[in-house]
Amino acid sequence: MTEGETISRVLGMLDPEAVGMRGLWRRGNLLLGLPAERAAAARALRLYQPQRWLARGMVAAVRGLLRSGLHGRVLREVRITRATAVAVAPLLPGIECGTCGVLLGSPEHRVRRAIASYRNAGVWEVAKISFGVEGAGILEQEARALTELQLLADGVPPVLGLHRTADVTVLRMPYLSGRPVPPGAYLAALCLLDSWVTDRPPQPITAYQEWPAIVAALSVSAPGRQALACLARETLRPVICHGDFARWNLLRTSAGGLMVLDWEWGHQDGLPGIDLVHYFLQDARLVKRLAPAAAIAATRRELQRPECAAYLATTGWTGDPLLSILACLAYKQGAGHQDHTEVLAAAVMMTGVSEFR
After folding, report:
1. Does one domain contain both 107 and 190?
2. How far apart are CA 247 and CA 32, in angstroms?
3. Does the structure show a pLDDT above 90 at 55?
4. Contact 101/118 with Cβ under 8 angstroms?
5. Residues 156 and 111 in one domain
6. Same domain membership, residue 19 and residue 38
7. Are residues 29 and 162 in the same domain?
8. Nearest one of 222, 314, 227, 214 to 273, comparing CA atoms
């Protein structure tokens, strides 16, 4: 399914009377379909939160076109295929024509997905859309996590509805307004993670639901098995775990708090440290583009800051924070969330020194 076909399918469900869209492309890939209405296009543009300076400059230029009303003339047209509209169940009769914008998922994702913004009966909403059986499972899991965790944790957005066709699943949520978290800022994120530490007693790391994935990632080599033995000695306090706690999944609200997006891997009684490590490691790898060993070293320095070290100690991690980095990398690798092959190998080598044996 091409990018244009994906947008056509989304519009066929949510905004079948839409007459056209303008596109934002990068490196030959269609990223975003913008509606003609300026307010709706501005909402859709905010769905895209690039981190590197070139992409941020492109978004700033498009924002200028929106303010001047020129985006319909300057940006390339997205061809919409007029396929028969397929209604979702339960029905969404209140979506206003011409307000739907569509952000496409990365072409590297195994499951085709999209995010749409639109005005529904006068209220702005956002919908996550996945295709196929596997995509349905992902959104159903996220809906369960959001429903279960909203009463337990700050920063969890509400669910407005889960809708389906034969092969498409739509998860509706409020459109959350807020400012992105800038590079280098971590105190508010750390404060939120502190609030997610539960009052449950500490338990061996081997009892956590993340442990089988960690074992799967580390047991394939002798150095990995040695690192696994180091980890197996830890006893930790459970936390609410997001699973993809990256800076670009956080929004600072007008009240000063944080809302956290993308909960498809969220769960209760999670392994502590994974979210904090991921927060720093994603910036090091994906934004700064550091080599594996350098990314680990940069993350290690961040975790040695007094505030971060205090959080790790509160949750039970002892000694060098490299062990929490190793646990995060192994879990993400073993669970199939990300390919951490090279950086995980570097972390395993770093734990091979005598202080970890």
Report:
1. no
2. 21
3. no
4. yes
5. yes
6. yes
7. yes
8. 314
Q: Does residue 231 carry a pLDDT above 90? A: yes
What pLDDT, on the 0 to 100 scale, is given for residue 357?
Answer: 40
Q: Which two tokens stand for residue 136?
A: 């349905």
Count of other CB atoms within 10 angstroms of residue 318: 12
Copy the structure tokens of residue 95.
Answer: 């979506």
Q: Is the pLDDT of residue 310 over 70?
A: yes
Place of tokens 């949750």: 315
Helix (H) or strand (E) holding 126: strand 123-131
Q: Give the number of domains in the chain.
A: 2
End-to-end CA distance of the chain: 50
Domain that holds residue 49: 3-175
Residue identified by tokens 């800076």 is 247
Question: What's the sign of the alpha-carbon dihedral 9, 15, 18, 20?
Answer: negative
CB of 125 within 8 A of CB of 118?
Answer: yes
Residue type, 263: W
pLDDT digits (tens, 9 = 90+) for 165-222: 888 899 999 999 888 898 889 999 999 999 999 999 999 999 999 999 999 999 999 9
- Which domain CATH number covers 142? 3.30.200.20
- My answer on whether 128 and 190 are in the same domain is no
Residue 184 tokens, joined = 């280098």
Q: Are residues 292 and 215 in the same domain?
A: yes
Separation between Cα atoms, residue 301 and residue 280, nearest integer Å = 10
**Domain end call among 175, 191, 211:** 175
pTM: 0.90
CB 274 within 8 A of CB 240: no
- Answer with the one of 128, 147, 175 that is the final residue of a domain: 175
DSSP 28: T
Radius of gyration of the chain (CA): 22
- CA–CA separation, 200 and 217 (whole Å): 27
Distance CA 146, CA 156 (A): 7
CA 167, 173, 177, 182 dihedral sign is: negative
What confidence category does residue 355 fall into, taking pLDDT thresholds of 50, 70 and 90? very low
Burial of 59 (0-12, 13-18, 19+ CB in 10 A): middle
Residues 157 and 202 in one domain: no
Q: Span 254-269, mean pLDDT?
A: 91
Closest by alpha carbon to 129, among 304, 275, 8? 8
